[in-house]
Amino acid sequence: MTFSDINRLNSAPLNQLASYYSPEMKPGSQIKASIIERKGSDCKIDSLLTATYLNKVAQETQSNCQKRFVCQDQLSNDPRYYEEIIFEDNVIPTRAGTWHDFFNGLMWLSFNKTKAYMNQLHIEQSKKYGLVPRTKVRNHVTHFDECGLVLFIHGDTLLKSLHAYFSEQNWEAIFISLKAHWHKQIMPVVIGHANYEMLLKPFIGLTGKVLLVSTPESLLDSKKTNGELRAWQDQRVEYDHLLHKHLIENAVFEQNKPFYPLPILGVPGWHYEAQTLAFYGNKRYFMPKRRP
Questions:
Q1: Least C-beta-crowded within 10 Å: which of 42, 75, 174, 272?
Q2: What is the pTM for the complete model shown?
Q3: What domain of life is recorded for the organism (predicted)?
């Protein structure tokens, strides 16, 4: 993979991660230019997909993540399972050359408090119930870790309305009627690293598991931010703390159905083609709620 391929990274959700390529990135800048400046135009993209590079990013962005990344090949003789190594050694096994593990690393640097909590739940559940079969809690944690999204929402009335619309899978209300609220009172953030990987080649059908989180006005004040990238970049620690608190206080992973489905490409501005009425009318993607 070379820089001729990197343009596919410049979708809106992936640009939320742009600050990790260059802390000085301005809103709307392209990831491509930032990487070239950092690594050189003749660099192969695969050279970035390493534990070494993630550790460098952690240092340069002054991440408060206390864990470090290690190449998984160094742990080939370690009998412990993945979550156990993270919990006991404070290291994150990372396969070289994989976008999946690379995006997982960026999520540790961004939402480290939340990720550490999910790791802790894996350990607690496996010690209490064993590794096999997975418990309901571990399944929910895994699904959120891989495919989760969060809508940080300001306003009790808006939050209540969104819960009702998602319960009914009323996509017209969510994406069309409330379009003006997105990226202002509704801040969407992808958490799942598998979804980031799939967003490299987005396709109709790409869906995440979304959680709605009430958010103070200070985090979503457009006067203090300059677009969704800057809002997320400047205040990611606060978002992490808010999400971590929400997960604990609401015992989210203990619920039977803690998440709503979300057609990711329906989020305003998150699809490379026109988001027309016909687009949202595709019932194979924007599926109506199943009735008994």
A1: 42
A2: 0.86
A3: Bacteria
